[in-house]
Design brief:
Blueprint: H1 2-5, E1 13-16, E2 23-26, H2 34-45
Length: 54
């Protein structure tokens, strides 16, 4: 999904929480507009298993 809005070669990092109850996934992109960022926040937040988008 990120590729659709911000094409590039990404290497996500995954880090488990301290208690191991969830995983944090980090992806760094180069945004070209605030609209692009807002669209990504909305679409990532709409994914059922996603609890938080920062």
């Amino acid at each position: 999904m990120i590729q659709r809005h911000a094409p590039g070669d990404y290497s996500p990092s995954v880090k488990p929480s301290g208690k191991g109850t969830y995983h944090a996934v980090s992806v760094t992109i180069t945004a070209t507009s605030i609209e692009q960022v807002e669209t990504l926040y909305k679409e990532l937040g709409d994914i059922e298993i996603v609890r938080m988008v920062l």
